[in-house]
Each structure stands twice: as C-alpha cells, then as structure tokens.
Amino acid sequence: MLYKGSCHCGNVKFEAEGSIEGLTACNCSICQRKGALMWFIPRGQLKLLTQEEDQASYVFNKHVIQHRFCPKCGIHTYGEGTDPKGNAVAAVNARVLEDIDLDSFAVHHYDGRKL
C-alpha cells in the first residue's frame, strides 16, 4: 500500500510503500519527547516529494540515526539509519501519515533506555 505523509505545514512531504504490520513506541530520550509511533521500512520504500534541503536533521549519542524534521514547523517526519545487518532503513512517524487509524495497529513498546 502507498501512504502519503507530511509535516504540519507541508514543507516536508513523502510517500512510503509497504504494509503496516505494527508500530513501535520507544522510550529513549528523544523518542519519548517526540511521541512518535514508528513504522520501520527499507529506506528504498520511502520517496521524498520535497527537496532534501527543505528538511533538517538531528543526531545524538552514537550519531548513527538521522532524525529528520521540518525546520519550519518542527514536526518529526521520519528517521534514517541501518538495521543490525547493515541495511538502510527508515523509521516513518506514523502520526504524520494521511488517512490511517492509529488505534487499529498493535504498538510494540521498545525499551530504548537500556541501550
């Protein structure tokens, strides 16, 4: 299925292809503050519809995850990193996807504070 997503002001827009089997809520220092529900997909299944320079990026700790957000409205849209096998992945913030019912998906609670 093809999903469309954007930040609040529409400055950052994207499409994500795949099937949402469930979402992840993490309690690490940044995810808990953002309140994002993440949907992990291969990075190749995320297509930006706006220019790369229209978004900002934040890294911390080990500097392995690019936390992408809109520099105008501040909404976190997705993150980029690699999985344990070295594959490029995107962590799409499901809260910014159009026309989905978040309550219809199981949420896995990941303990990111133990890392």
Primary descriptors:
Metal Binding Protein, Guanine Nucleotide Exchange Factor, Chain A, single chain, about 40% strand, globular, mainly beta, about 120 residues, three-stranded antiparallel β-sheet
The number of helices is 1
Major sheet characteristics: 5 strands, antiparallel
In spatial order, strands of the major sheet run 4-9-8-7-6
What gross morphology would you assign? globular
- Rg, nearest Å: 13 Å
Our estimate of the beta-strand percent is 35-45%
Which residue ranges are poorly predicted, with pLDDT under 50 across at least 5 consecutive positions?
A: none
Tell how many strands the DSSP assignment holds: 10
How many domains? 1
How far is it from the N-terminal to the C-terminal residue, by CA?
Answer: 33 Å
Order of helices and strands: EEEHEEEEEEE
Oligomer class? single chain
Q: How would you describe what is shown here?
A:
This protein has 115 residues and is mostly beta strands. The chain has one domain (2-98): Metal Binding Protein, Guanine Nucleotide Exchange Factor, Chain A. It is 5% helix and 40% strand. The protein is built from one helix and ten strands; from the N terminus they run E-E-E-H-E-E-E-E-E-E-E. A five-stranded antiparallel beta sheet has the order 4-9-8-7-6, with no helix packed on it. A three-stranded antiparallel beta sheet has the order 1-2-5, with no helix packed on it. It has a two-stranded parallel ribbon with strand order 3-10. The longest helix has 6 residues, at 29-34. The protein is globular, with a radius of gyration of 13 Å. The model has no long low-confidence stretch (mean pLDDT 95).
